[in-house]
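W.,

You were right to be curious about this one. When I first looked at the sequence I had no strong expectations either way, so I just let the prediction run and decided to look at it fresh. Below is the sequence, 509 residues in total, followed by the output.
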Amino acid sequence: MLIRLAQPKRRWKFLAAVGVDATTRRRRLSHCAGSAGYSTGGDAILFLSPSNWPEPNSTAAGTRTMSLLKHFSSRDSPFGSVHFGCGAKFPPAPSNAIGTSGDGIHWHRIKPNRSDEMKALLQRIEHNHAPIRAVVFDRFYAEEAFSFRIRETCPSALLVLDMQDVHSLRLGRQCLVEEADSAVSDCSDGQSVSDGNACHMTEQLMEKVITKAYDAFLRELASVHRSDLVLVCSSEEVKLLESWNVPDWKLVPASFFCTDLNETSEVSREFEDRKDFVALGGFKHAPNVDSVKVLRYQIWPTLRTRLPDARIHVCGAYPTQQILSMHDKKLGFIVHGHVEDIDKVLLESRVLLAPLRFGAGCKGKIIDAWRCGLPVVTTPVGAEGMTNKVKEPTKNVITGTTAEEDYWGGMVASDTNAFVDAAVEMYTQKNVWTGCRDNGVNLLHQLFNGAVNLPVVENRIDGAIADLSQRRRLDFTGAMLWRDNRTSTKYFSKWIELKESLTVKDNVT
């Protein structure tokens, strides 16, 4: 257990002033504590979710969360113990990567509306391991369920909200798409879908999107302000939160954390060695279900007539009956469901199709495709937050002006016809395919490199822990919300706890 010496802030500021990074500062303070006779096991960090275990073989969010857990449980981490608590049952194999021998992570099943259980867990962690210095909430509803209990029991713990994506943005877009679907006539096969290409975020659409998900927007924004630090998945969403007056010092870019980038060029197969299309995504996620629906009934019939020998392989955990019923071998629309080795499928395929009509955050399926040297055809929603500027700005020969351009590891299309055209071109033109494949690999190194992104998150958390008191004094909005709003959240949660306990008693009697 690390017990801080007298005047730790003064030592911290001195080390910072001479250019020592946050991780090294904590190690030096720990060394000083050890030389004085204290234990230096390191602090504890706790991740909490009311309903979602990290499933890296099933969801992109699970992959991202597991990357954070593994990083903080590594030998070089400033934390001595890493914990994850969740109220759900353990996920089934083969997606269950939890409790793996030697993973260095402590797993706890804890219900969100049980005050005594939560308090006991926190006390057990601090007694058996170390003081809890940081708690990471997996999405805003985890913060709603757990944060007031953390503040009561561990008032000096840093409260970190991991957004995964801006939930209200995704939900508002989904509402707009569903409204558009209801306004169009049914397709001949009974499916009713619109292009949905208007759901790419623009300023004029912001008011509509927020209106459609206003309750979720207010809850999510309140959670952001109550938290001491916020992990944000995409650069576009950082800008969005700043436009909602969230202070920039509270926001931490935390997209994806790819750790096998040096192997990318070695495992990538060339154009001639690949065939067929692939679609990827877990089917507990509404955007993925909708995307496959669009593929099956809007895009694939036309695409198949232009490429009659091509097939598409639909892969993803937890397929619904609706998804399974779309399987049509004669049409070349092959639904696999969960695939144990998704990299093998991606390495054999030529193009990933992701016609996402709504969503938010960075898309894990696109990261996986680029990691396996696979170009992507998607929509503006799919590409959002995953582009970068070209190194050499292009020059307009007529006006003489220069402008930076976004580049992408594939092609982006805003309607069905353009999407089909892009898919055909990507599938048949080797030079186009090769250029887009190279762009995707470059974007992985530039935007999603775990060796770069993980230390950024660690240092921001480390620095915020050292300066927590000052941050909270300056965070007036957060302080007001904690003063006025936590009582309603607290007693609503306690009401749920009482209701559930009474239900259990009634069942027993």
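Here's what jumped out at me. Confidence is low (pLDDT under 50) at residues 1-15, 27-40, 197-202, 391-403. And, maybe more interesting for your project: The radius of gyration is 24 Å.

Coffee later to discuss?

I.
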